[in-house]
Amino acid sequence: MILQDKPGFLPDLPQWVVWISAILIVSFQLGGYPVLNNNEGLYAEIPREMLASGHWQGWVIPHLNGLAYMEKPPLLYWLTAICMALFGESETVIRLVPAVSALVCVGLLLWFGRQIQREVAAKLASLMFVSGLGVMVMSRSLMFDMLLTACLLGGVMHAWLYHERHELRYACRSLIFLALAILAKGFVATILFTAIGGGYLLFKTRSLTDVFKALGMWFRWQPWLLFLIVVLPWHIAAMFAEPIFAWFYFINEHILRFMGKREPHDYYAGAWWYYLPRMALFLFPWTLMLPVLLRLKRVMPTVPALHAFLAAGWIMPLMFFSISSAKANYYLVTVMPLLALQTACWLEETGGVKRSGAFILGATCAVLALLLFVGAGRQNSPEQLALGLTAANLMQFFASVFVLIAITVIWMAFRRPAWAMLPLIILPIAIAPVLVDGAKNRSAEISTRDLVEYSKKHFADRELILYRVFEQQSSLPFYLKRPVRVVDSRSSDLYWGNKLHKNAIVIDDQKFVDALKSQKLALIVLDEDQTDFDQKSYSTQMKRIARLGKASIFSN
Hints:
Distance between the termini: 77 Å
Radius of gyration: 26 Å
Number of strands: 10
Number of helices: 27
Strand content: 5-15%
């Protein structure tokens, strides 16, 4: 039995409102700030080098800064390279894949809502998902996780429909999505897919017979043939192109990373509860509904199988990430779609936000506004952070936004309580320009675009070289349109590429000294490495010619 939509329980938004909101959120000033150092710089340079390679091997084994980089599968690079080939190498273009991936998630949520006759809940869930702070940031950052989320979401949705309807087409689509998820982020996609499926069976089934019956449905050759057709070619080609690929990719990057023994160790660790407070930030501002949700009368779900699937869809990935030794905030984006959908379904089944709940939500926003006003009074820094506003001004701005939301919510409590949650969308609308303008103001610190423009104007005759650290200046090759030499490298991302093959990219102190004798060079030294650089014998042969952001440029 499928629960029908019940008028008045939830705001029944027109679908065009959801789509326009989603498109505006993910596309607003998509290229309004430079390519960021660290992850985004890495993943923008790899597809650029794919296009520049001119041969098919460059599309099989990705290269970063001229060196082999086999840490991740190639789907994100391929799609980004295709976008670059079609539209150019601008900041907007390199972020098209994550932006479109977020919109694919919205489309999948709306499609799934129609399949289960929960269209009203699905529209609200789509809006909650795409306007949540975590997804808003990840949909405009060139990283793997938004693409993985779209592929994994499609896979598990079709897998559940296959279990419920026993139609082969759903199994075929499910495993095609799973294969694409593997090409997006690696075999962690298989673990997440299996964990969600296993969690669903654990929540739903009551006997081993039911478990074996459910598993037996997957012993059909057609879905697996399609899966292998999609997933095998790149893995086989990579093993032929690079002999160490099998050990490096399957063992070092998957098993040893999960165990915290990957070489080199370049990721964060954390306690088992690491992700719990971060979930509140990722789903913000909709986490402001938590006091209302906790107050709602608990009811038995009308469709237990659906809720078992939705619960497994976010609880099992959260558990996996929590027990893993490798922690990263952006992993949480995979949890968000089905968490949003279950929240919306729960609201629908419990009667939605009533007048008392609307008052609680309005009071919560009013308290936050008061706290921000008090905090603003204690800020005295004159530095402008974004939109020409200081920290105190920004706190006052967001306090005013919360006041507006509180007033609107309380007004709706008397008119249409079910719609009282919708004013929360004002917050993402206010946050987006602050984030974009803040990134613009800090461009010299978070990107090398300003540095490259400055060097072309003032010392174009000198080759730019990095000292020690690559990741924190990783956008440099992208803006220079060529690999950059690194002296005395401490880079973990270039570690294996340098170790596997002889190259002229990573050079030691002696080679740099030799180069100083015959070339005009400009060495970029981060503030954190300044003390170490001062102790080098060649530092006396160079003088500081510029300073941008957190780096100084020295030249002979």
